[in-house]
Design goal:
Blueprint (H helix, E strand, L loop, with lengths): L14 H10 L8 E5 L12 E2 L9 E2 L3 E4 L13 E10 L13 E5 L11 E4 L3 E3 L4 E4 L9 E2 L10 E3 L7 H9 L4 E5 L3 E7 L3 E2 L10 E2 L2 H11 L3 E8 L3 H14 L2 E5 L10 H8 L2 E6 L3 E2 L5 E5 L2 E6 L3 H19 L9 E5 L4 E2 L5 E9 L19 E4 L9 H4 L2 E5 L5 E2 L4 E6 L9 E5 L5 H10 L4 E5 L2 H10 L4 E4 L2 E2 L4 E2 L9 E14 L11 H14 L7 E4 L4 H10 L10 E2 L2 H9 L5 E5 H6 L3 E14 L7 H11 L1 H9 L5
Parallel strand pairs: 5-6, 13-16, 13-17, 14-15, 17-21, 19-24, 29-30, 29-31, 35-36, 35-37
Antiparallel strand pairs: 1-12, 2-11, 3-10, 4-6, 4-7, 5-9, 8-9, 18-20, 20-21, 22-28, 23-27, 24-25, 24-26, 26-28, 31-38, 32-33, 34-37, 34-38
Helix pairs in contact: 3-6, 4-5, 8-14
């Protein structure tokens, strides 16, 4: 059981001071060199500068198929004034050593890559000659000396430094080494990184999950990040919150690896043993425990000898940010690579962004290209205006945040907020990363999956952000999204979506879906009734005795389901009214796990979670769009996919009305 005591952070440090203390205790130099076969050198760092032992090419060679000649024999030649040359009795294919000298009035047949024979100083292309009887050709073009030749050493000269120490070996560099005749190469030894996942709640992928457990995604993410840096990961297993097991695993990592990484166990909870065990087994020990970052505050930086030992936060987004801030630079130095210079782009913040003063904050964003003044229907839009940076706001516990993001925004610790319209610098997560062709914001819906699959089949990338119907509609109106999935109920007209459209925004007709009350099967309170009667019964129970009434789970403000449910509830506030889920899946999970007794979600989600379902209202999910954007190829592809008979069939199979 977790102790009620909490061990406070040792000292919350500024990010730069934390890095300074950590680096001061390390040897940030490349590891020792090792010799590897050339075919195993890809992705490794060159440990020594390489000089050419010989000229490349090692002989003067022809760059074309033709005839080796003396340039002087071609002077004055043309279509009207050809010159006849006698052919020597040899053909110089690549790898054939010449035996005949080219003398005045003669030529030798030569292939591309063939060795230039003695006496010749140029090669005439075969298409600039014609046969002139047996054993002769006519030259119909004048040449300068050196024409169509690569001279010995013209690519690489003997003794020239070709590759310098610290070069990352790609296919280009290994090709150069092969051209120099190298079959082995000295490279920096790859740092070996031990990875320990910790916590009683962590379960290997593929195993069943109990309530409160999570799959071990962190070790997979860390191993991939380590490989991307040219290092070798070694997974040491999932270690429960058991002190002897944790000590044994850490001791093994300290013996076998150059770097030890633990994920989880950095926060103040008394049940986390990692910091206690690391402090006991390392010397000089923990240098930093707590950095003024968001996310990433609880990171723990320690050193054993000169060996880095880092306890990364357990939440995925926190872990990834702190890995790249504190661990990646150390691994790059040990692997002999230069510091990473991430590409940045200028963008515009569409709304005010509040931050916690006193902590440097990183927030993931999706980039949206603004609508150009004129659109060529046959091309992707081009505009000089900077992209819009839409904060994702998924929190440090999100597993999918990095997969949905184009980059991140850094808010300095002294800033309490950034105003709307502020130009900001966005650090891209990938050097070649491009914003998605299509961005949707709005309601969360499983029905989008077959539509977006078809959009991708048509050659466009798409990204969907679940922000609720109202926020999605506002994003489309502001030009921050291409489309918004909305299902906003209007009580006056008893209809969906059209009554709420701002001027200048139109609808792409979508599909129908059934909203209803979801509950755990077998709950007698929901037996033998219909949704409207059940709503009335629950409202009566809430007013009579709130402590004994069924507990609801609400939806986030601005969502279409929230608008519908608030209309049905009126002024009544049942137990659980203030607890909000951001998606239909969130509602279903809360009910299935017993945190709530009922909520409102769509029928396909209730079926996925094995819940009972009382139909409440058939609604429409349509897509709000600025008509000008329909001229964009990606938006047009979405409209075509939405109307495609095969996509409509998939929607019906999933339980939607299409």
């Amino acid at each position: 059981m977790m102790s009620m005591e909490q061990s406070q952070f040792l000292e919350i440090l500024d990010r730069d001071e934390a890095e300074r203390r950590f680096h001061a205790a390390l040897d940030l130099v490349p590891l020792a060199a090792e010799t590897v076969p050339l075919d195993e050198a890809l992705g490794r760092t060159l440990a020594e500068s390489t000089t050419a032992p010989a000229d490349v090419p090692g002989f003067t060679r022809s760059n074309v198929d033709g005839f080796a000649v003396r340039a002087a024999d071609t002077f004055g030649c043309g279509e009207e004034t050809p010159q006849t040359l006698r052919l020597n009795d040899e053909i110089l294919d690549p790898g054939t050593a010449p035996t005949r000298t080219v003398t005045a009035g003669t030529a030798t047949c030569i292939a591309t890559g063939g060795v230039l024979p003695r006496g010749a100083d140029a090669v005439i292309m075969v298409e600039h000659t014609v046969p002139a009887g047996e054993g002769a050709i006519e030259i119909r073009r004048a040449l300068a000396p050196g024409a169509h030749l690569s001279h010995a050493g013209s690519d690489i000269a003997r003794g020239e430094t070709v590759l310098r120490r610290g070069t990352l070996l790609t296919s280009r560099e290994t090709g150069v080494l092969a051209a120099l005749g190298r079959d082995q190469v000295q490279v920096v030894r790859q740092p070996l990184v031990a990875i320990l996942s910790t916590g009683n709640e962590v379960v290997p992928p593929g195993q069943p999950l109990a309530l409160g457990q999570v799959y071990d995604a962190n070790s997979t993410v860390l191993a991939g990040a380590v490989r991307e840096l040219g290092c070798l990961p070694r997974f040491m297993g999932i270690i429960p919150d058991d002190e002897p097991q944790l000590e044994a695993a850490l001791a093994r990592g300290l013996r076998e690896a150059d770097v030890v990484l633990l994920s989880g166990g950095t926060s103040k909870g008394g049940g986390d043993l990692n910091a206690h065990v690391v402090a006991r087994l390392t010397h000089p020990g923990i240098l930093v425990h707590g950095v003024a970052l968001k996310p990433g505050k609880p990171i723990c930086l320690a050193v054993h000898g000169r060996k880095p030992v880092v306890i990364l936060p357990g939440f995925p987004t926190s872990m990834v940010f702190t890995f790249h801030e504190f661990v990646a630079p150390v691994l790059r130095a040990m692997a002999g690579q230069p510091p990473l210079r991430r590409r940045q782009v200028r963008a515009i913040l569409p709304q005010r962004f509040n931050s916690e003063i006193g902590r440097t904050e990183y927030t993931l964003v999706s980039l949206v290209q603004p609508m150009p003044a004129a659109v060529d229907p046959g091309k992707k839009p081009v505009t000089d205006a900077p992209p819009i940076a839409v904060p994702l706001g998924k929190g440090s516990g999100s597993v999918t945040a990095f997969g949905s993001a184009d980059g991140f925004l850094t808010i300095p610790r002294q800033d309490e907020y950034l105003p709307a319209g502020e130009p900001v610098q966005i650090t891209l997560l990938g050097r070649d990363l491009q914003p998605a062709d299509l961005l949707l914001q709005g309601s969360h819906c499983l029905g989008l999956d077959p539509v977006l699959d078809d959009v991708r089949r048509r050659g466009f990338t798409a990204r969907a952000l679940s922000v609720g119907s109202s926020a999605g509609l506002a994003a489309v109106l502001a030009g921050h999204a291409d489309l918004a999935g909305i299902h906003i109920y209007d009580t006056a007209s008893n209809s969906y979506n059209r009554q709420c459209l701002p001027q200048g925004i139109t609808l792409l007709p979508g599909y129908g879906r059934l909203q209803g009350i979801v509950f755990r099967r077998g709950d007698p309170r929901f037996a033998g009734t219909v949704a409207r009667e059940m709503m009335a019964r629950m409202l009566e129970a809430a007013m009579a005795d709130p402590d004994d009434a069924p507990v609801m789970i609400h939806r986030n403000r601005g969502s279409g389901t929230r608008i519908l449910l608030d209309e049905l509830l009126g002024e009544t506030r049942p137990p659980g009214f203030s607890v909000e889920a951001r998606s239909h899946h969130g509602v279903a999970a809360a009910v299935a796990q017993g945190r709530a007794d009922w909520g409102v979600a769509i029928a396909p989600v209730a079926s996925l979670h094995g819940l009972g379902f009382l139909p409440l209202k058939e609604e429409r999910l349509d897509f709000a769009v600025d008509p000008e954007r329909l001229r964009r190829p990606a938006v047009a592809a979405f409209a075509e996919a939405l109307a495609d008979p095969a996509v409509r069939a998939r929607l019906r199979e999933a339980g939607f009305t299409a």
